[in-house]
Amino acid sequence: MIEFYFETELDLQEKGRYAEWVVQIGKSERREIGELSFVFCDDTYLLELNRKFLNHDTFTDVITFDYSNDDVVLGEVFISIDRLKENSYKYHVTFLDELRRVMAHGVLHLLGYNDKSDEDSKQMKAKEEEKMKLFHVEHQ
């Protein structure tokens, strides 16, 4: 089950389509998406999580908490709408494209991808692009 929570104002249209897309991301990596929550919040909310759980005192666009087991992807993905707005402007992309990129990024972390090294970061970016394209494909 994929759920969406809003700690800040965001009018996310087509929640069902986003949920189906996330399931397709899992299937494309041969994994089942179980319980997964997306929490959309502001910078302050995410900064507090970053300080409390990761001992980082910086703004970020996404934090992922992974509760997965070998068979099923389980977790929480917290996304800062403030960072999405700023990054979409900075990188000259639409807000919705940046939203999808960050959602895919969070799911990819749950699927075992990392971005700590330059090589891992390149792979993560390629996977983000690949998974974003799945959003525009009709699924049956």
Structure, explained:
With 140 residues, this protein is α/β, with parallel strands linked by helices. The chain is built from 5 helices and 4 strands. Strands 1-2-4-3 form a 4-stranded mixed sheet, with helices on both faces. α4 packs across α5. It is globular.
Global Rg: 14 Å
Largest sheet: 4 strands, mixed
Shape: globular
Helix count, per DSSP?
Answer: 5
Average pLDDT works out at 91
Strand-pairing-aware structural class: alpha/beta
Care to count the β-strands? 4
How is the largest sheet built, in terms of strand order? 1-2-4-3
Strand content: 15-25%
Unreliable parts: none
Distance between the termini: 18 Å
In helices, the fraction of residues equals 40-55%
Order of helices and strands: EHEHEEHHH
Task: State the main characteristics.
140 residues, 4-stranded mixed beta sheet, 4 strands, alpha/beta
Which secondary structure elements does this structure contain, and how are they paired or packed?
Blueprint (H helix, E strand, L loop, with lengths): L1 E5 L8 H14 L3 E10 L1 H12 L7 E5 L5 E9 H10 L4 H16 L7 H17 L6
Parallel strand pairs: 1-2, 2-4
Antiparallel strand pairs: 3-4
Helix pairs in contact: 3-4, 4-5
